[in-house]
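hey team, just a heads up i'm posting the complex here instead of the shared drive bc the drive is being weird again. everything in one block, sequence lines first with there labels, then the predicted structure for the whole assembly after. its two chains so it's a bit long, scroll down
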Amino acid sequence: MASPSTHTAHHAPQGFIRKYIFSLDHKVIGIQYYFLGLFSVFLGMSLSLLMRFHMVNPNVVVKWFATLWPTAAAGGIMTPELYLSLMTMHGTIMVFFVLTTVPQSGFGNYFLPIQIGAEDMAFPVLNMMSFWTTFLALVVMVAAFFVQGGAPLSGWTAYPPLSGAGPLTGPGEGMGQNLWILSIAIFCGASLMGAINFIATTVDLRCKGMTLMRMPLTCWTWLVTAILGLLGFAVLLSAGVLLLLDRIAGTSFFLPAGMFINDHIIANHKGGSPLLWQHLFWFFGHPEVYIAILPGMGVTSQLLSTFSRKPVFGYKAMVYAILSIGFLGFLVWGHHMFMSGMNPYSAMAFSVLTMCIGVPSAIKTFNWIGTLWGGKIHFDTAMLFALGFVSLFVTGGVSGIFLGQPALDLYFHDTYFVVGHFHMIMGVAAIFGMFAGTFYWFPKMFGRMMNETLGKIHFYLTFIGVYCIFTPMHYVGIMGNPRRYSDFSNVGYLANAMPLHQFMTYAAFVTATAQLIFLFNLIWSIRKGAKAPVNPWNSTTLEWTVPSPPPFDNFGGVHPVVYRGAYEYSVPGAPTDFIMQTVPPQVIAQGD
Amino acid sequence: MQGPPPPIDTGWGGEGDSSGRGADRRASFTGLFVLLAACTMAFAALSSAFVVRRGLSDMNDWVSIGKPPILFVNTAVLLLSSFLLDASRRALKAGARSRFNLYWSAATGLGILFLAGQAFAWYQLRQAGIFIATNPASSFFYVFTAAHAFHILGGVAALVYVDVQALRLRLGPAKRTAIDVTAIFWHFLDGLWLYLMVLFYVWG
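-- predicted structure starts here --
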């Protein structure tokens, strides 16, 4: 008779297409998301380099600009409109196709089921559809570069009237903007499918013994991120539909009367409210910040504990902090709109709620430091990136406290101070979370180790590099340097800022070049890295109990049973300095 | 002695993926309720846009549109289809398969009839010269009805799927989940429509 904890092992589908392209296996889908994000991050980074180049060399003729953009860069000099379209696409691609995609859909897809002891996600077909819908969204988004007029100009926030009034407002505001909205709508659908899967999987497919309070913190962050995505993307989808109708059906949801654009009186719209878009957008947009950063927090917690050989300090406090960050994240969207002329009392309320988010964020930070305190810290590359995450999160968070004050925000809002702030906390911190996850989980995903020497070189160059790029932005922001401008080389009061901009541009190019080391390390290690053992980091969670890479049904036909929490490191009296979640209590007792 | 293995429920209402992977009944319900939460948020966003846009119309551009009376017929049709779905589920519980088939098919037919009725309401509005861009009230009417119809379309697809399975006598125990999930989704859309009717007639 079969024991209750085993069942028949399932066999992987044969054939290239079912195995690698339209795969139902959450691990393959996770890797697909990862590489979609990797493509997107290099695309987005290239756009940012073009922008940084143009900012400090606005009048330099570059021949291949003219080849790439015969109208927008005629004669080899970038027009301001082209700059804006690069900025829009940089922001959009990075926020949606990198920050939303890799930490949640990439690592989450691969490791959520394994970490909770499930064979797969709850709805494998939905999971596959979710990936291919995301892929379609990316194709539509990139297509915006290739239509007449090029990519849209209205930024990743797509504020109307600029985004709603049609081709009159600029070259990218025709078909380009339509494709942008369409792509975002498709992306919303994909994210909703993903969120349904993540929530149902976490709620219903946990293995025996895996209580909620025994889940690794990564799983908690993936769950809360899925909830945020579920509630946020539904709202963005609605808003996107209304915006598209304003553009193509002549409605006036967001477009006011009396618009005068490029010497034309716009007579067919009246009564709409651009502020309505801002409310709907930021009701999604603020939770989106946490969608980007929460999974990085989970990875960081996991890694700090593993590599300092200590339990996570205050596990329960960490869980409650994640939940309260998720909850408060829906109440603070107004702090993006202090400049909109809102009632000062509303602004004050949003400001106070914003400060409240500082509390759970500080709890997390102090608990990270508490986890490190007195630990036997191993400085592997994965750990370095996790430490870098903490550093960047604190740096970016502190400037957030400035921006959360309406009085200060009125001054800072349209300056580089904001650019520095959100790149630190949302962009680079989340990217560091992804790097940490990559170095930590690579052995499990590909069965080989990444090169530590290259990893460390890459870490130090990137860590110093990003501080060199984004710290001076706060300074030029305080000087009053406006953001979203393509050229301020002739602005008198900004003359002192130009050398700093040059420095930032050099730093950006050096840091971007350093990413090639990572790319090389990744590809080389997939093919030639040293074979990975089952548990190279002596971690405790379930993914480290199965072979690297795991078999098709993750646990080879065995239902795992969990007996303890996720972070039992350096337990007094235990034979090793880590106890796997699957070790029954009596085994430890015998070891005494 | 071991009997044949029980059918595997993938949560898709199918025979079960031969590999046996996929969701159990519980996960299907969780997935359904999470989906309903997303639908609720999407309509809540549209409703808040509706309230704000209406409150803002200092240009006096919000003109209540004459809504086609057929909407009340459609409402009755949709309500009746919900009742029939429940009757058919009760019939299935009582083991009366043919009664189940009859009621379920009728409910599916009424669902399609509702869509046709909505299309007729649009046609009547068009005849009256009321288009989506006519004024904000008409814009929201079209947006809400279209968004609702889009969801109804998904619901009808699920109803038809179950119906075809039932008529082909393929309604094994694994299909119970598909039946229940479809019925709950349909009741939700029914409730949503009642809410929209209140919105149209009280504030529209």
